[in-house]
Amino acid sequence: MTVSGDAFSSQLGSVAADTEALINTLLAPNPCVGEIARPQRLLEAMRYSSLGGGKRIRPFLVVASADLFAVPRQRSLMAGAALEFIHCYSLIHDDLPAMDNDDLRRGRPTAHKAFDDATAILSGDSLLTFAFDIASRPEIHPDAAVRIDLVRALARAAGIGGMAGGQMLDLAAEGRFSGGRPQALDEAAILTLQAMKTGALLRFACLAGAILGQATANERAALERYGEAIGKAFQIADDLLDVEGDSATLGKAAHKDAEAGKATIVGILGVPAAKERLAALVDEAKSALRPFGAKASILAEAAQFIASRNA
Ligand code: GRG
To answer: What is the reported pTM?
Structure first.
C-alpha cells in the first residue's frame, strides 16, 4: 500500500498545524515553575523564529516514526516541538553576521534583522535550552529512562558531534580560520560534514520515534538507517536548490554555495549524477523501512518529498 501525495501533504499539514498550536502554548508569556520571568522582547523573538512558517518536516518525521509503535500523538508532538526549537535556534544562529550573514529566512527578515544581534543570539540560546526542558517533561514519556535516552540522543545530535560540530567544519571549509582560503574537501569529508550539520537532526527525528515507542534494537537500527539516507537526500536536494532554485521560491538567498566556493556533493558529481545519487538514496531509505511493511508507507512518501521539494 502506498500513501498518495495528497495524503502525505495533508498529514504534513496536520502535524505542522498541531506543532504550531503546541509551540504557541509552550511559548506563552507566563513563566513555568522554576522560571522567574519571561522577558517580553526575548519571548517575541523566540516566537518570531519558531512560529514564522517552515515545513515542520522534523516534527512530522518524529510523529510518523512514533506512529509505527502507536505512540500517543501528544507525546510525539512534544518531542517534535523540542526538535523544532533546536532547528529554529540553528537557523537564527546560522543567519547571524558572524556566521552566514543572511537577511532573509522563510521569506521574512532574519531574526537579527527583525530584532537585533543580541536578541537573536539570546533567542537562539533560549530555544536550545527550552528544547531540553520539553524533552525532559514527564508528559513526553512516563518512564524516566526513556526520557533520558531521548535527551541524550537529542544532545548528541545537536552538539559537538552533530549539528554544531558540522557547522564548525562548514565554517572551516569556507576558509574562515585559514585566511579565507576555502579547503578542498573530498567526498568523504563532505559527507561527514553534512551528516553532522544537517543529517544529525533528521536522523534524530526518526530515532526519537523509536525511543518513544521502545522499539527493538533491529527496529531502532532500521529507523536510524532510514534517517541517515533521508539526511543525505535532504542535503543533496538543498544543494540542487541552491544551484537551480530562485530566492523568491526558496524564501532565502539562492546560489550562495557556489558564490562562497563551498564544496558540495553536487559540485563534485555534477547535477545529473547528483540527481542519480538522490534517487538511490530514496531507494535506500525505502528499503530500510521494509521491516515495518505497509505501516511505513507515509515515511516512504516523506523520503520522496524530501528529495523532490522545491523550497
Ligand atoms: C548555528 C549551531 C548552528 C548550526 C547551524 C542547520 C544549520 C547549522 C544551518 C542551516 C543552514 C542551512 C540552510 C542548511 C541546509 C539545510 C537546512 C537545515 C535547511 C533548512 O531546513 P528546512 O528546509 O527549513 O527544513 P524550514 O524553514 O522548512 O524549517
So the answer is: 0.94
